[in-house]
Design a protein that fits this description.
3 helices, elongated, disordered C terminus
Length: 231
């Protein structure tokens, strides 16, 4: 039906073909539009989108050259494994299962002597520390011996079935020893003075398992805080 109207009946009767709406100034383009423009810029090397620029040809990356790929080391022996469980001879059994009931220096001396070495001088032994590392609710014993101005040795003892047992021995440049959330973390310096390597050990139900190896920022020595104590 034709509609007549003043000054524009014909215009109202006609239907104009639809065209895509042109965004007004300030209108945020759709996410699909942004992605399409970004892809176009990457293909053409354009820089008309903020943050996109042509960095030129990528550098060639060479795969590492593997030397002697058919060779591999044998598993560590019992004496080379720092987390092997070793009963300490010549010390009394502990029915209660707590290393707080043991004589720390007697345990250390007996363990070192059993390895054919001379027990350390008392002045070289740091204050013993008691802390539950084996998650049985009973304290274990941590002993550190300074073998020289730079090298130290850490030994950890636990009671396993009433027997005093060494569960860890580590020798190195101990820049720090930390206890957190059941983890025993050993910090050692690297060639870069800004960083230290951190070795994490944690009790896995059977042994002190190597948990993680990381790099961390070097820190200034912390103020000593009492952890555990000497029995």
């Amino acid at each position: 039906m034709r509609r007549d109207g003043k000054g524009g009946g014909d215009e109202m009767g006609r239907r104009r073909p639809r065209t895509a709406a042109t965004p007004r100034s300030g209108t945020v383009p759709s996410s699909r539009t942004v992605l399409a423009l970004a892809a176009l810029a990457l293909l053409t090397g354009c820089t008309n989108l903020e943050g996109l620029q042509d960095e030129g040809r990528a550098r060639d990356v060479d795969a590492p050259l593997v030397l002697w790929p058919g060779s591999s080391p044998a598993p560590p022996s019992r004496n080379e494994n720092p987390a092997v469980l070793v009963p300490v001879p010549d010390v009394p059994r502990i029915p209660g299962g707590s290393m707080a009931d043991a004589n720390p220096l007697a345990v250390l001396d007996a363990d070192v002597a059993a390895q054919g070495a001379t027990p350390p001088a008392p002045r070289a032994v740091r204050r013993p520390v008691l802390h539950d590392l084996t998650d049985d609710g009973k304290p274990d014993l941590l002993m550190a011996v300074d073998l020289g101005p730079r090298i130290s040795e850490l030994r950890v003892y636990s009671v396993q079935n009433t027997v005093v047992t060494r569960v860890l021995v580590v020798r190195g440049v101990l820049a720090g020893v930390e206890l957190a959330a059941g983890h025993l973390a050993l910090r050692e310096p690297t060639k870069d003075p800004r960083y230290v390597s951190v070795t994490d050990y944690v009790w896995d139900g059977h042994a002190m398992d190597l948990w993680n190896l990381t790099l961390d920022d070097a820190r200034t020595p912390q103020t000593p805080q009492a952890v555990g104590g000497s029995p």
